[in-house]
Amino acid sequence: MTSLYRPTRRGLLSAGAAAIAAPTVFVRNAWSEGKTLQIGIWGGTQGEFIRKSVLPKFEKDFDCKVTAQQGSTLGQIALLRASKDAPKFTVMFVDDLGVEIAKREGLIDPLPKDRMPNLARVFPRFIYNDGYGVALAISSAGLFYNPKATKPLESYADLWDPRFAGKVSLVGTKTTPSVFTVIAAAAVATGKPYKEAQYLADAAWPKLAELKPNVLKLYDTDDAPLLVAQGEGAIGGPEYSKYVYPYKLKGASIDMCFPKEGAFAGVNCQILVKNAPNQDLGAEFMNRMLAPEVQQGLAEAAIASPSIGGLSFTSPIADLLAYPDTKMDELGLFSPDWAHVNAVRSVWVEKLNQIFTK
Amino acid sequence: MSITDRRTDLGSPWRRLAGALRGAGDGLAGWGLVAPVVLFFAVVFLVPVGLMVRWGFYRQLDTGALSDGFTFANYIRLFSVDLYRKATWTTLEISVLTTVVSALLAYPLALVMARGPALIGRILTVVVIAPMLINVVVRAYAWRVILANGDQGIVNWLLAQIGLGPVHLLYTEWAIVIGSVHVFLSTMVLPIAAALGRIDPAVEDAARTLGASSFAVFRRVTFPLSLPGLAVGSTLVFSLTASAFVAPALLGGNFVKMLGPLVQEQILSVFDWPFGAALATLLVVLVMGVNLASVGLIERRLQRKMKGAR
């Protein structure tokens, strides 16, 4: 009986090479084996994508355990503050305003560029606060409306039109877009661009008081666009496109408009917590979040633009994304001066509450 | 003096001592039984409340740190800005309204539960408790569907069928009251039903025998004797409504500002924990003050009635 296997020189060489390489393949991430990483992520479609598509593969690749807790930007910052002396979280997802706060309060470290090669793919404008935060997704904030109830608005000033009496769902004070309400109202009242209007909030208060008869409610839940689509009121916002476009793609009677004053940018970032446990693994995770396949999937799941170059999208998603970054310039995406806004936010919230409380 | 008498005399101090020791033992046993609960409440209630009160006298700095020493700045702001006075009044108003409406609805239900056929009583108990089994957010969303304005809400649709309406219910104070009554009704019904169940039927029978009408029996006998149950129910409903923040947000449309949502906003959105702590302290003082005053009033009334009955 002769053996079916007849060794050849090439076969022996391949087998030898594989044998030599095998230990390095299997122990490639041995340093991370059994480690645990605690991260803070967002909710909604982005959070769902990360939980289902990013975390399982990352855990498998690095033989580690990742615990993800979802929350809003200021809630995440609150967690970092509370555990400043003994940090539990290693990576936090926050909006761009949160990067400013976290850096100012000494809660975060600079991004470890040497451990994050994918940073080279990021459009330079999306690296924040001297390298302390990097964007993962960019949403455009504008008004959402029911096409059956109204045409898209050309200007934010149209919100004051009596035809919208009791039909405007205004964003509540608990989320970041309420800041955009104040800046847009100041822009309407003064005729100045956002860049200047953000410092002229005093002009916004009487203007917002005039808006009161048109306001149906101040919402603070993500379902507000869906309720407008179902016929509650006609228009709402300002709101991030990531909370509106997923409904539009599913066929709901809802769309977004970006009045001539300009669109606001909602930039979702990631930061590395200072003195956090397993920072090396955290850096690997942050690097993974900037990988092309993750950026592509995240953008398609939430209809929010990626922060890296070199990706391509097909219709209808491509039509809804402000991508590449030159398209963001065309939309005039505006990011407020968060150092200023964060400092006065408490006063703004109090003023908004005073105006709209019955 | 007989031997027996002497024995009695000699035994008496020993018996008193034994009695005293037994009493002390009972007291110690009582303290032993209560101690875990006292310890638990001290850890999970008194300490956090103490810390909260302390935080109200700090100031949040831009660096994220807290200022050293005491400051009354938060309380000065609390009492000088119109918004917080209005929110305090609205909290009181909605909590009192919810308590009164709950009490009015609770008495007939509790009477049937305590005095009606056992089967009906059990069914009613399940019906009253059922809302507690559903998440408060889900309940609030259901009420949004029922109370929706225009031609969308079930209430307005029903009114339209009989040629009435539409009424503006959602995003008003009444929407919060309706939602809160639904959620907290069981905490009013159950103590009242328990109090009614403890009333000796012979007392009411005696009143009827003496010629009192059904209403007079209820007003002068049943109601006064059920006051302990009403006191417990009112305390629970008032406290839970005053500190609620889901119903005001989802049903009040954020137009109706109560202290609960304002505390949440200061802690999670504005990030001013010391001011949030000052607001929370005000809420605790308000709730405790109103509860102590109302329970005191009810107890005094009850004692007066009992004295009158003697």
From TrEMBL, chain A:
GO terms for biological process: thiamine transport. One of its GO terms (molecular function) is thiamine pyrophosphate binding. Keywords: Periplasm, Signal. Pfam families: SBP_bac_8 (PF13416). InterPro entries: SBP (IPR006059). One of its GO terms (cellular component) is outer membrane-bounded periplasmic space. Coiled coil: none annotated. SUPFAM superfamilies: Periplasmic binding protein-like II (SSF53850). It comes from the Bacteria. This is Extracellular solute-binding protein. It comes from Siculibacillus lacustris.
